[in-house]
Amino acid sequence: MGILGMHDTDAIGKEKIRASHAGGYDATSDIELVAVADVDEENLTTFGNAWGIPPDRQYLSHESMLSEENLDVVSVCTPSFLHHDHVVSTARSAAAPDVIWCEKPIASSVSDAEEMIDVCEEENTKLVVNHSFRFTNKLQQLYALLQEERLLGEVHSVSTQFRMELLRNSTHLLDTLVYLLDSRAERVSGYISGENEAVESLNVGLEVDDSAGGGFVLMNDGTFATIDCTIPRSHSSMTLQFIGSDGKLYMNNDDGEWRYWRLEDSDHIETPLPGIESAWTWNEDYQGAFANAACHVQSLLDGTATNASTGREALRSLEIIVGFYVSHYTGSQVNIPLERPLRDVEITSW
Questions:
Q1: Residue 163: which domain range?
Q2: What are the Cα distances from residue 222, in Å, to 17, 155, 187, 244?
Q3: Considering the domain boundaries, does residue 296 fall inside one?
Q4: Mean of per-residue pLDDT scores for the chain
Q5: How many CA atoms lie within 13 A of 105 on its CB side?
Q6: What is the pLDDT, as a whole number, of residue 202?
Q7: Per-residue pLDDT at 6 exceeds 60
Q8: 310 φψ region: left (φ > 0), alpha (ψ -120 to 50), beta (else)
Q9: What's the whole-number mean pLDDT along residues 325-345?
Q10: H or E stretch including 250?
């Protein structure tokens, strides 16, 4: 219906919020939102009324919906610890969707994520993970500049900062990092603060593992990255600073500031980013990301696109987060991919 902390609570369920899965489908030309399932009857009715879903297509369990409906695409917008069960059961269900659009993070453990990926591949179901920044035009343009045109040359290091908590929020930051570098973590060292401001803001009355934290990540392309996700929401900005052999790049998404310097004769000369007129902003780019993602889902259904946010790519950010926890609680550096027992480590969140 909408995201607590990002939208006016009074508006959720009463307005058609653009930055939501339902809002994304509403923006497409050929996808119709026909059914909904929720174990909370009040939320179910509120959602159904807001989006015009008939009462006989509002289900109190996902199992009943999947047994009654013949669906092309299913959105999984449940808490992260339920993603595994819901994606696996959906892929194997009689509804037989061609696409599952799952909220981030992909799962609460690496082994759960791996099974989700394997089952979807077995069932020939495309798993799309909603790391929404991937669906913004400017980030796609920046990816092309870094990977195809080698704007920065060889990237040596990246410094990043975003708000707490690691699973709930900073999976976005880490996915942006691995996406723009087009690489995977090789070794991590982590710090977990134990702070979680979502407990109060979401009024859940439940303690979870998910908290503020960070550390360093050595990528398999040799890039050294530092991650600081210890800052409260009201004080934070999503920032990334890339230092490369041919230049440097500064990104601040909250303040809408992207700056690029090319390296020329040992001097950094500030230059406009080629082909990108303005910086990424929350109000413009994030708000439109859900519509872009839903249109991408439509293209996958039409067979005219390649999955831009696969489960395997989403796994790369989850590996880093789990690695941070294992590193913190064992006092050691952790190699990626995680060894078999560590793949089962579960980080509880919502």
A1: 134-279
A2: 41, 8, 10, 12
A3: no
A4: 93
A5: 34
A6: 67
A7: no
A8: beta
A9: 97
A10: strand 247-252
Our measurement of the distance from residue 28's CA atom to the centroid of its chain's CA atoms, rounded to an integer in Å, reads 21
Eight-class DSSP state of 82: G
Name residue, tokens 């230059």: 271
- How far is Cα 127 from Cα 269, in angstroms, rounded to an integer? 42
Q: pLDDT tens-digit profile of 207-223?
A: 889 999 999 999 999 99
Q: For residue 1, what pLDDT is reported? A: 58
* Triad 307, 288, 81: Cα angle to 5°: 60
pLDDT of residue 350: 76
Q: Is residue 46 part of a domain?
A: no
Buried b / exposed e across 277-306, counting CB within 10 Å, b at 16+? eebbbeeebbbbbbbbbbbbbbebbeeeee
Residue whose C-alpha is closest to residue 123's, from 145, 165, 94: 94
Q: Domain tally for the chain?
A: 1
Closest CA to 155 of 250, 59, 222: 222
- Taking the C-alpha atoms of residue 157 and residue 236, their distance in angstroms, rounded to an integer, is 21
The pLDDT assigned to 160 comes to: 98
pTM tops 0.90: yes
277-280 long-range contacts, CB within 8 A, separation 24+: 279/138, 279/251, 279/252, 279/253, 280/133, 280/136, 280/138, 280/139, 280/251, 280/253, 280/256
Instruction: For residue 225, tell me if it sits in a domain.
Output: yes
Residue 115 falls inside a structural domain? no
| CA–CA distances in Å: residue 305 to residues 23, 133, 207, 278, 312 | 21, 18, 41, 27, 17
Is the pLDDT at 286 greater than 70? The verdict is yes
CA 216/CA 158 separation, integer angstroms: 10
Query: Which amino acid appears at position 297 of this protein?
Result: V
CB 321 within 8 A of CB 166: yes
Surface-to-core class of residue 100, CB atoms within 10 Å of its CB (0-12 exposed, 13-18 middle, 19+ buried): buried
Q: How far apart are CA 195 and CA 37, in angstroms?
A: 32
